[in-house]
Every structure is written in C-alpha cells, then in structure tokens.
Amino acid sequence: MRKTILLLAILTTAACSGVTPQTNRQTKNMTPVSNGTVVAGRSSGELANPDLAQRDRLIFSSQREPVSYQPALPKDGVVLGIYDPHHTFADDGDVGLQHIYVYWQALDQPKFKEDLATVRSQLRDAQDHHRGMMVTVEPYTRAANWRDGGRHLFSDILDGGFDHEIKTICTEVGAFKGPILVRWGHEMEHSSSRYPWAGRDPEDFKNAFRYFVETCRAYAPNAAYVWSPDGQENLADYYPGGAYVDVVGLSLYGFEGLEESKLGHARDFAEAFGERYGRVASFGKPVMIAELGVTGGQDYRNGWFKDLFRAVAAGTMYPLLHAVVYFNDMEPCHCYGFYGDPDWRIPAGWFTAAKQDMADHRQEAAAGSSSQPVGIQ
To answer: Which among 126, 203, 271, 289 could disulfide-bond with 133, CB atoms 3.0 to 4.6 Å apart, if both were Cys?
Structure first.
C-alpha cells in the first residue's frame, strides 16, 4: 500500500562547512553535455561520475531516518507540501514539505520580505515542525527593475558575478537539518517577460544552471536539486543533463474561466497534468508538481482534487510522481488581464481531507467498489 509520508535517505557525504567551491566560470570550461537522446535520465554526452550515481541511488529511501540525514522523496508514495505565506497550515501535521521563494539579489536587503533573516526563520520553522523544505531560488538581476538585464544575466552568473548570492543562500541550505530541495530558475522555457531568465537561449540557461548546481553543492551537499520547467513542448531544449538534476518539477494550474474562454472547455487534472508528465517522463527522474493551484467553481475544484487524489492513491497512473506542492496564495503576477487575479487558496483542513480521500480511494480499489469522494472546496 502506498503511504503519503516523507522519507529520508542516509547522508553518506560529510557536511561541507566553509568549503570554497572550485567551479569553472567560463561557459567553454563547463562539463560538456550534449543535446543527445536521454536514456534513463542521462544525456548521451554526459560524463560518468560515481559520486553522482551514488546520489541518484540516495534520492529514495524505504524508512524514515533522523532529520540530520540526506533529503529524499518517498519511494512508494507522494509527499504533500505547501507554499503558505499566510500561515494557514502553520501547525498542520499532515503537511510534509514546506516551500519558500527567495529573490537571491534581495537577501542582503532587510526591506524585502525575502531577506536573509526571514529565510533563516522559515528554515527554522520547517525544522521545528519536522517538515522537509523546498527553496525556490529566483535569479533576478540587480537592475532597478529586477526583470531588466536578462540578456546578460547568464554571462554574469558564469563570470562569478552572483557567487556571493549563491554562497549566501546555499550556506543556509547546507545548514538545514532535514530534507531539502533547491529549485533554481523555474519555468525557464516559458516565453514571457515575467522572469529575466525565461525564454532565453537554451544553451546559456543550461550552462548557468550547471554552474549554480556545481557551486551550490559545495555548500549544500545534502540538498537535492530540482530542474523545474513550466511543462511546455520545448522544455527538453533546456534540460541541463542528469548529473545536475535530482528531481524534475512541473508547474500545474487549473483556471476554469480562462480555460473555457481559450480552449472552449474546462480541463480536468488528467488532461492538464498528463501532457506535462509525458514530456518529462523520459528523463527517468523523480517528478514533483512543484506548484499546484486550482481556481473556479466548487464542482470544478472538487473534480480536480478528486482526480488528483485518485491518481496518487492508485500509484500506477504517474509512477514517477513523488511530491505535490500547493501554491496557497492569490496570484501575484497580475498578468491575467480582464480574467482577474486568480485566488488559488485552499481552506484549513485541506490536507487532512486529502489524506482521507486518498485512503478511501485505496479502500475502494482493494474492495473493487466505488463510492463518493470526500468533497473539498
């Protein structure tokens, strides 16, 4: 039976306190990874590395270990997590993974909510609640408008221009005594002006991603690194190679009004997630829904959640799926025009109801019967 729990794998590499990373700053010196066919999560041009092979084996574990060990995802289940800036689920024992966003250029600026003291506080909070943590690092520029300067962002990174930011955040990540994932430069293949790193040259992005992971690993060898596209058809162009990816994340949002207007019908979970999952399954990596949000009428939301919980409970529809992280906030980008800003938030008790719903689905499957799922608004 699949259990919705967070599991840890034993850390076999020593903590790397105060180590200065030795990485190549120029694109021409980066470890070569070709655009060849991906086989079992490895690109055809990737160099063999026994240490990285060992890391792959330690992504999963079959039993829970003390919080000072290597992070992992559940081998035989799905961990549920949340981005919860309003602390609705601060003390919810059914939450296994906590999510925060970090503007890396704002860490030394206390006027911003993502400053270093706040990051440390959230990491301590996750430890105190025995939760895993996912840190999404958003590599904005240092321009007055953080979205400006994207044309030279990657070359600045490769020239060491953001080494201080990488060291600062990754030192905090490395000190976290629990399971932790680092997600850098998400939704990179999406062609919009929202992120300065998105929609750029794929080779430049891949080199910058590799540089970040190589540098960060020196300070945070206990972390798992998440490559997290939006899920578009061109996502494979931005895959940096299996040596730099422990987990593949996907963004998944259901917006009833927008879908009916643009597609002529409202999509369900299977339609929306199935196409995205199909585009990343060939990499052979564990998959997580790194951002999930659903907005619309009660029937629409209930339908989405019912299908999601059934898929998780079954465990066979999406065998690589091992984590679902909900985005519990209003949409911050103000980019939906006359559709308005969607409200993705879920009510307190959602995770308890979710686990009960999944347990009911398992019982139904075992008994060969069907019943009405628990309704969740």
So the answer is: 126
Residue 171 structure tokens = 């030192």
- Mean of the per-residue pLDDT values of the chain: 80
pTM for this predicted structure: 0.80
CA distance 272 to 224: 26
Strand partners, 225: 182
CA distances (Å), 198 to each of 20, 64, 154, 229, in order? 29, 37, 11, 10
**pLDDT bucket at 109, cuts 50 / 70 / 90:** confident
| Strand-strand pairing, 79-83 and 97-103 | parallel
Torsion sign (Cα): 183, 95, 291, 310: positive
Structure tokens at 95: 């939450």
Q: pLDDT tens, 242-268? A: 999 999 999 999 999 999 999 999 999
Q: How far is CA 77 from CA 227, 286, 333, in A?
A: 21, 11, 33
Residue/partner pairs of 9-12 with CB below 8 Å, 24 or more apart: 9/58, 9/59, 9/60, 9/61, 9/65, 9/69, 9/70, 9/71, 9/72, 10/58, 10/61, 10/65, 10/69, 10/70, 11/68, 11/69, 11/70, 11/222, 12/54, 12/58, 12/70
pLDDT at 302 over 50: yes
User: 92: which 2 tokens?
Assistant: 């919810």
Supply 305's token pair.
Answer: 């959640």
Tokens of 52: 């990285």
Q: How far is CA 174 from the centre of its chain?
A: 18
